[in-house]
Amino acid sequence: MPPEPAGEDLEPGEVPGLTRPRAQAALIGQEAAERAFREAIGAGRLHHAWLLGGPRGIGKATLAYRVARHLLAQQGTGRGVPETLAVAPGHPVARQVAMLSHPNLVVLRRQRAPGAKTVPTQITVEAARRALHLFAETSADAGYRICIVDCAEELNLASANALLKLIEEPPPRSLFLIVSHAPGRLLPTIRSRCRRLALRPLGDAEVVRVLQGLGEPFAAHPPEVLARAARLSEGSVARALGLLDPATLALVDEIEALLAAPDWRRVLALAERLNSRDADALYETALDTVQRHLAAEIGRRLTEPPARLAALADASERIARAAREAATYNLDRRPVILSLFEEVAAAR
C-alpha cells in the first residue's frame, strides 16, 4: 500500500495531496548525494552533522528521511558500502518514521501548538529544547539518535544556538541532518561544524518523472503541460507543481509579455492584484519569473561587455533585496512589483 498523502493537518511547505517527505520511498536525481552517505556509512566515518543545501523542492528532506530510515533500521551497518539506502515501505522503521513515532528520531520544524490557530513563523527555542532533549537520554536500542532540521532558515537565533551547542559537543552515535534552502544565511559556527552537501537542481526529464510518479491530479496533465512546468521550474519539483496551476501559468505568460513590452497601466493593475494577502503564491511566482528572465538575459548576452552583464546582475540583486525587506518588515508589495519591471527596463 502506498503511503497516504498529507491530509488536513498540513505542515509548513507541504502541498495538499502529496506524500510527505518522511513517507516518500523514492528519491530521484540525487544519486550523487546518496552515494556520499553510502560511502561514509560503509567506511564507518559518518560525520555527526550534515548540511543538506540547495533550492526548495529538489529532495533534501526526502534524502534526510531516507538516511534516517536506513540507519534506524540498521541496514548494511558495518558490512561495507550499502548498495542503497532504501528501506521497504512496509518495514516497521519506515512506518515509525512516517508517523514520527520512532523513539530515536526527532524532527525540528515549525509546528502548530495544541489549540493554536496558526503555525509560528520561526522555530522557537522552546521547541528546539523539547526536540533536542532526545540527546540527553540513552538511545532506545544503542543505535543512532537522529535529528532532522527542516528547515534551518526558520531557526531563530536562540534556537540556532541551542542546536549549535549539541553540534559542538555531540553525544556518541548522534546524527544531525540539517536541511537548508540558503546555507549562506546560517550561523557561520553551524556551517563550520557540518559536512556540507550541495544537492543539485533536477533536470527537466527528472522533474517530469517525479510529477508523473505523483499520481492524480498532478500526473493527469497533458505531457506538454508537464514539460513546460518542468522547463520553467529550474529543477524544483515544488516550483513545477505550482506551475501546473492554470492561474499560475497565465500569470507567467502575462509577466513575460509585460517584460517584453511594458504597459504601465497593466503593471499597476498587476501590482494591485498581487498585493492581496491571498495572492502569496502568485506573488512568489512573479518574483521567480522576473529572476528567471534576468538569468536568461545574462546567459544570452555572455558575449557583451561586462558592464552590460553587471547591470543585469545588479538588477537581480536589488529585486531580491527589495523582496526580502518587504517580507521581513511586512511592507506593501506594490512598490516591489513596480520595481521588477523598472529594474528590467533600466538594465536593458
From TrEMBL:
For whether the record's keyword set contains Nucleotidyltransferase, the answer is: yes
UniProt keywords (A-Z) are:
DNA-directed DNA polymerase, Nucleotidyltransferase, Transferase
InterPro entries according to UniProt: DNA_Rep/Repair_Clamp_Loader, P-loop_NTPase
Q: GO molecular function, one example?
A: DNA-directed DNA polymerase activity
Domain of life, per UniProt, equals Bacteria
Which GO cellular component terms are attached?
Answer: DNA polymerase III complex
Q: Which Gene3D superfamilies match?
A: P-loop containing nucleotide triphosphate hydrolases (3.40.50.300)
Q: Which GO terms describe its biological process?
A: DNA-templated DNA replication
- Protein name per the record: DNA-directed DNA polymerase
